[in-house]
Amino acid sequence: MLEFDGLYKTYGDNAVLRGVGFAVPEGSMFGFCGANGAGKTTTMRIAMGLARADAGEVRWRGRPLDEAARRRIGYMPEERGLYPKMKVGEQVAYFARLHGLDTAAATRASDEWVDRLGLGERRGDRVEKLSLGNQQRVQLAAALVSRPEVLILDEPFSGLDPVGVDSLAEALLEQCRAGVPVLFSSHQLDLVERLCDSVGILARGRMVAAGTVEELRRREAGRLLRVVVP
Ligand code: ATP
């Protein structure tokens, strides 16, 4: 279980997170929804150690995340962190090495994931030559290449065409089936409904609803779902 427990974060006088808590069981997909500025990115950055919570913690399998545990998380940041001049294969191998694989293992893992995400023919192309959708696939390959125990993805579907959405969705479902908990933020309700076991809705730093999509629709929160996920 990946657990977010009582997270608080204030920037200046802006109370960005005000007690955010939810859990993502192993092998399930959690859709993290909410209007722009609700605090989704901040929540995920805290999990990754890129921002520090004022209070609360994030736990994986019952233990607070530390640097070693974070190396076992595949993370796709909102600002995509690719090097435009690197070749696709090199870029993915580079991320594998960051996660501790040696050069030979990193190259093998890169080859595998570049193929699995349908980028085999682009392996030798510079990242900057790729369409936005394909760059997103490179970013996902970078997140998957170290065989992460957990996936945390910030708006992974934004900017993808329908084919890109389907192949990304399939890759994430495959991870889920293998037991990986997947947390992703999105503004696309149709996708969240299609893919997620549960959904959490953040509004101004508070979790205002959480449950399965059906539960949220049935309850008052269905209204919220329509409001925050246009
Ligand atoms: P979006 O859907 O637009 O990405 P979000 O739900 O991910 O929104 P956050 O990016 O977490 O929201 O931002 C929440 C609030 O925190 C915003 O008001 C933002 O301006 C503020 N914020 C985030 N990071 C910082 C920072 N480093 N310094 C100051 N304010 C910040």
UniProtKB/TrEMBL annotation:
Keywords: ATP-binding, Nucleotide-binding, Transport. Residues 2-229 form the ABC transporter domain. The keyword Transport applies. One of its GO terms (molecular function) is ATP binding. Belongs to the ABC transporter superfamily. This is ABC-2 type transport system ATP-binding protein. It comes from Petropleomorpha daqingensis. The lineage of its organism: Bacteria, Bacillati, Actinomycetota, Actinomycetes, Geodermatophilales. The chain holds residues 1 to 230 of 305 of the full protein.
